[in-house]
Amino acid sequence: MIAENTQTQMRKGILEYCVLLIISRGEIYASDIIAELKQAKLLVVEGTLYPLLTRLKNNGLLSYNWVESTSGPPRKYYILTDTGRGILKQLDTTWEELSYAINTSRKEADNESKKPTNQTES
Amino acid sequence: MKKTHNINIGNSIVHIEEDAYEMLTNYLNEVKNHFSKSADDFEIVTDIENRIAEMFAEILAAQQKQVINIEDVQSVIKQMGSVRDFETLEDTEGEPEVSSHYNSIRKLYRDTDQAMVAGVCSGLGHYLDIQTKWIRLFTFLSIFIFGAGLLVYIIFWIMVPKATTRIEKMEMRGEETNLRGFANTHLHPLAEQSRGFIAGFIQGIGEFVQGTGKVVFKFIVGGIIAFASFFLLALIVVLAVFLGLWSSDVQNYFPISMVNEEYLFPMSIAAFIILFIPLLGLILFSIRVGFNGRPVSKVLSYGLLLAWIAGVFTGIFYVARVSTEFKEGAEFAQTTPLNSFPVYSLNINKARYFTKEDSLNYRIDATRYKGRKIMSSLDDDFNMPRSISFRMEKSLDGKVSLNTAFKSRGKTFEVALKNAQNIHYDFLQEGANLNFNPILHIPKMANWRGQEVVLVLNIPVGTEVRISKEFNRYLNGYDYWNCEHDEGSQYTSWIMTETGVKCKFEKEKNDN
């Protein structure tokens, strides 16, 4: 349960960051975002994306345009707002900090976990 | 061949097979429920619906077909993800997911697959998660409590729909109607649940603790149902009494004694309908609110409404007929001269004196008639409203007399007069003691038509009258308690003056 919770929290933040990254490249349709996320193995099902997009849009990070579609109803194409861009920059720095922190911590942890195993083997 | 539905999803029309439709509706409802917690639920659900519509369009175009079938819906849902998948990516902080553990909200249906009679007991068994045999036993036993169990059974039978579709059967068994549950029942359709009683009981307690609020609500609703059922039963008994299934003399008691005997039958039926249908409606509504969201069938509810209106109109009609019986009033008076005494005592005597005529009426041997006296029973008090009034007046000619006026109402003046003549009132002078009966009598089986007796005692000025406590209780219109000389006394003294009756004690005080 605790592990699950942490995983969820981690994944949530990263998913948001990735979505912003994908949208930052230009106007994009939800299912294309999904395709990319699936490829990156961050997302399995489409349904989870819609609440996220709606929330980001309501927070002013995203906006969308309606584009007519040949197959079915008009589609929402998402685009980053200026606020979204600002926040994405902040997230970039945060991510670098985080990855540094994690890399350092993991290195330490790896070293420490190797020592005792080596001792028992020798 | 399969039945198809036309649905409008994401503003496009899609043909969809029935089972696929069921599954899709179910899925969308789940999604809606899931997002109903968040503020933008409408937008999210619309996005999802639009996307599903688009996927359908793609599938139809790719496979060159016209109808969406269940596999298509399954693939779409797989792509979109189930509510369970959504949950993993949303806030799970705070409350632990109780719902994912035991999510099933059971609904009450009749289980006709395992029915003994109509599946009410097995349906309740599923609903309460108790083995059906216990419910059956309980129901069977409760039939002996004045048939209450039977009545409740019938009401449930009428009210509770039977589980016909797969979803309903799953809801009945408390299986999850989301896709996981759906998939399970696909593999082994409606596999028999065989859970031991104790396990069921423990689980029942768990559920009870989980949903205490709901349970309390259901208890209240259940209480209402039980009460209403009880009243319903009582109503049926009362109707039976009125229709004379048991010998009783209800028609001799007051409010009912107003009604002519020939109207009694239709009026009791009408009254029964007027009371029965709202009660039944209350029960049906309670069951609906408390146990199952299904409305009563339209035919049944309109039928009940019509029957009720018919009952009301019949009731009004007969009430109007009965009220015409009170149209005309008649009165006749007779004056009984009394032997004069300086002091009279007014007493109550509940004994009934029979005249020779009465004796003949009641077939008491008339040949040996010597002024019979019958001790009447006290429960006659409830026969009719107390309708005797008494006052004292100054005698103009110096003689003592009792003026008795008999009043009654009737359809016509003649009938009213006849009713007045039929009043029997007992009064007896025993020396200076005047004995009055607290009630008047009307012949057995006669209707109450506002019969009244007005007694006027005419006494000359200066005559003293002692009103006993008991007389005061039944008949007196005078201010008895203010005239009480000393508290232990059994009577108060009054005296006739030029200006009317005065309290003797007060008058003496004023004179001094």
Note down, in words, how this protein is organized.
The complex is a heterodimer of chains A (122) and B (512). Chain A is mostly helical and 122 residues long. Helices cover 68% and strands 11% of the residues of chain A. A 3-stranded antiparallel β-sheet of chain A has the order 1-3-2. In chain A, strand 2 and strand 3 form a beta hairpin. Chain A is elongated. The model of chain A has no long low-confidence stretch (mean pLDDT 82). Chain B is α/β, with parallel strands linked by helices. Chain B has 4 domains: 4-80, no CATH class; 112-210, no CATH class; 214-325, no CATH class; 328-511, no CATH class. Chain B has 19 helices and 15 strands. Chain B has helices at 18-35, 41-63, 70-80, 83-88, 98-101, 120-128, 132-142, 148-159, 166-173, 179-187, 197-210, 212-242, 254-257, 261-291, 298-324, 356-361, 413-421, 469-474, 504-511; strands spanning 4-9, 12-17, 67-68, 328-337, 343-348, 351-353, 373-375, 388-394, 401-410, 427-430, 433-436, 452-459, 464-468, 491-497, 500-503. A 6-stranded mixed β-sheet of chain B has the order 10-11-5-13-14-15. Chain B has a 4-stranded mixed β-sheet with strand order 4-9-12-8, with helices on one face. In chain B, helix 7 (132-142) packs across helix 8 (148-159). Chains A and B meet through helix 1 and helix 3 of A and helix 2, helix 3 and helix 4 of B.
